[in-house]
Every structure is written in structure tokens, then in C-alpha cells.
Amino acid sequence: MCEPAAMGYRADENSEFLAKEARMSQATAAPEEMNVYQNAEARFEEAAKKLGLEQGVYKYLKYPDKEVTMYIPVGMDNGTLEVFTGYRVLHSTVRGPGKGGIRFAPDVSLDEVRALAAWMTWKCAVVDIPFGGAKGGVICDPRKMSRGELERLTRRYTAELTSWLGPERDVPAPDVGTNEQTMAWVMDTYSMHVGMATTAVVTGKPIELGGSRGRKEATGRGVMICVDQAIEKLKMKKEGCRTVIQGFGNVGSMAADLMQKAGYKIIGLADIGGGLYNENGFDIPKVIDWVTNQKKPLQDFPGGGQKMSAKDVLFQPCEVLIPAAIENQITEKNAADVRAKILCEGANGPTTWQADAILDSKGVFTVPDILGNAGGVTVSYFEWVQDRQGFFWRESEVNERLMDIMVNAFDVVVKYAETHKVNNRIAAYMVAIDRVAKALKMRGIYA
Ligand code: NAD
After folding, report:
1. Mode of pairing for the β-strands spanning 133-139 and 81-92
2. How far apart (Å, rounded) are the C-alpha atoms in residues 211 and 201?
3. From atom 22 of ligand 1, which residue's Cα is the shortest distance away?
4. I need a labelling partner for 111 at 20 to 30 A (CA). Which of 6, 258, 307, 365 fits?
5. For this structure, is 286 an active site residue?
6. What does the buried/exposed string (b/e) look like for 31-40 if buried means 16 or more CB atoms within 10 Å of the residue's CB?
7. Pocket of ligand 1, candidates 175, 253, 298, 327: which has the most ligand atoms within 8 Å of its Cβ, to mutate?
8. pLDDT 10s digits, 209-250
9. CA 293 / ligand 1 centre spacing (Å)
10. Of the candidates 108, 111, 95, 16, which has an alpha carbon nearest to the alpha carbon of residue 433?
11. How far apart are the C-alpha atoms of 282 and 127, rounded to whole Å?
């Protein structure tokens, strides 16, 4: 079910454009802390200005290609009918099909999905893979829903989007609150609608259904590769390097596991239930077993440690800080309390625009989200390639190719920052926007 007002394609100097501009500038009326959309906008504006992006291209890239709101009826286990609100935003297909996860969470909003869709465009461009950007979300609390309810919600959401999705159109993946099983349901529903098994319509699937080896670890591995590069750049040693990770889901737990195996000392952990700090370091496989297999609260982990809030863990002394949970954790109010040398963003948007300048003034080396967590979409790209070829790679091949792409992207961004005297975040945006703008100019505008 599409909301007609939200379906408009880009316009230029006409009434629709002006109406949209007015709507969106209401959102940029600078409250105390900006929301994710405003943060994404502020970085885009700053990078576009520094690039000297011409006005028409600026307008084209500022707004999504299209967005849809859906009202999704789901029969609940208790016999009642519930209606959930869902979104899909296709930000850009300039460099390839849309690519971006589906988020199931109670606080999903259209603004958030818009921001995340734009970030996907820039992220795919930073690592130079042939995708545009998209994102989806449904307002729901998956922890309070049964497997059957989640399956029906996923299938109806996918059915509403049949004409939008496709290996050459828009390719979803998991995000917060969704997982391999969700992707299997998306793949099956889409395949039933188009009348053929179409594995390449989603990534992050189970390996048995055309998923890629190494995808589950990919975002965490990409985080580690970026931290390794930063350590080398700053001439530090990774052995015993004190590391704090907020978020112990896919990204946080995989980063913790891989990094501990590589020699880092993980001294701080947190999830939605709170934080835990142990200066002697945690035994990560045991924490994973406690949280993931035994389904126990992280804070009750019996390996010792001081309990604190999930926020406070971010401000403990450490060399490496990895926010890998949710948005807006490091803000204007608390950025001065960060005591890390390297900040590598595993989550999307954990740092606000106002916090950037404070971190810069403290000399924190920041690996921005659109680079730091790009390992996930990079291996999603490998999954899409493997599905389309029907030929699957060894895990070592996946990891080797991921390493090549991440190291190259890190070098490009850091060199760009040094050459143009901007911070790493703005450098990453400038590299990305420039690549998308060049592709756009080569294609030309079909008007
Ligand atoms: P997930 O659902 O697997 O895990 C999220 C973790 O964050 C959980 O441990 C949860 O308890 C914790 N959390 C939630 N709210 C919190 C709070 N207020 N304080 C502290 N912890 C909190 O999600 P994920 O896939 O690991 O994604 C985490 C972040 O990384 C998101 O921002 C997501 O968009 C981003 N990301 C994920 C991937 C991926 O491949 N999974 C790729 C790129 C970016």
C-alpha cells in the first residue's frame, strides 16, 4: 500500500520540490541534539560544500529517489488483527541497484530510514562496490512477537514491495531486529511472487539458501581491519590494546571475538541491558556462549567485572572504542568524556554532528560508520555476485577479498583527509559523493 504523497520522484524548481524543501527544512531547525536524519544531512551539506558540488547535482543527491509507507496487516497468535507501519526508502540507484537492510524496532521512523538509506549510498561508494543505497524498517518489537507473527509480518511487507525489490532493483539485507531467517522469508516470498527461485534478491541469507561464507562475521571483521589499519597508522601495538565495545549483537560480538583472537584486550562490553567493565579483559567466547546460547543478560556474566550503564562504558579509559549498537550515543554533551585514541564506528550514526568537532579537538582518530561498518555490505556484494553466478567461494577467498577492499578504502579516505585537511568522516563523504556525482554526470539526467 503506497502513500501517494510520499511516492514523488525528484523534481527541480517546481512546487513539489519547494514543498519537500519546506518539509525537510522544518526538520533541520536545529534542536539541542539533532536526529539521525539531521546528522546525516549536516555531514552531506558540509562535504558537498567542500566539494563545490554544483547546485543541480546537490539537489539530486540530497533527496531519495522514492519512498513508500506501508500499513501491514498481521494476524496475531491470539486471533486479533494488528496493523504495523513499515517503510522502504530507495535513496539512489546511480551506481547500481539499491542496497540496504530491513530494521524491525519500536522506534523506527521515516526520518531514520531516510538517513540510513542515504548512508548506504555513501557507504557503497566509499568501498567502491556497484550498489546505490536503500533501507527499510517496520515499527514493531520483534522481542515481543512470536516466530509465526514475525514470519507473517515479513511476508506481507515483502509482498507489498514485490515491484520495488529485485536483484537489479533493490536488494535488502538484515539490520537491527532482523536476521538470516528473516532474509530466508523475504527470498521465499519474493520468489513465489515472481515465479522463480531468486536467491540474489536479498543478502545475509543462510548459507544453505545461497548465503555467503563469512557474511555473519563480515561487519565485525571489517571493523577489525579498520582498527588494525588505524593502529598501524598511529604506530601503536594491537597486542593488549584496551578495547571497549558497546552493543553485543551481530556486529559487536563478532568484532569482540575476532579482535580478542587477534590480540586486543576487550575490557568493556554493553548491550541494551547495561554495561560491564573488567580491566583484566573478558573471555569473549564464554561471553558469547552466555549471551547467545544461554540467552542470559550480559551484565550477569559470571566472569567478573564492574556493572555500569550501557552509556558509561563508552567513557572508560581505553585505546579503541567501538560503538556497535544504536545511533546518537556520542553527543555534544558527552564527547569530551571519550578517553579513547581510536573511535571505530560499528553502528550507523553513533556520533552526532556536533560531537565530531569535539572529538577532533581531542585528537581522537575516527573511522566513520560509512567506512568502519562497510565490511557487511561488502560481503553482501560478494553474496549477490555468488548468487548470480551460482558459484560459491571458500571463506578464505571471501575474507581475502574483504581485506583488499577495506584496506584500500581506508587508505583512500585517510589520504584524502590528509590532502584536503578535513577529518576522516568528511573525507569519506567527499570521496563517496564525488564518485556518485561523477557516475550521475556520465549517465546524464533522464528528464
Ligand atoms: P543486533 O540487533 O544484532 O544487535 C544490537 C545490539 O545493540 C544488541 O546487543 C542490543 O542489546 C544492543 N543495544 C540496543 N540498544 C542499546 C542501547 N540503548 N545501549 C546499548 N546497547 C544497545 O544489531 P547489529 O546487526 O549488530 O547492528 C548494530 C549496529 O550496526 C546498527 O547500528 C546497525 O545498523 C549497524 N550495522 C549492522 C550491520 C550488520 O551487518 N549487522 C552492518 C552495518 C551496520
Report:
1. antiparallel
2. 11
3. 272
4. 365
5. no
6. eeebbbbbbb
7. 175
8. 999 999 999 999 999 999 999 999 999 999 999 999 999 999
9. 18
10. 95
11. 32
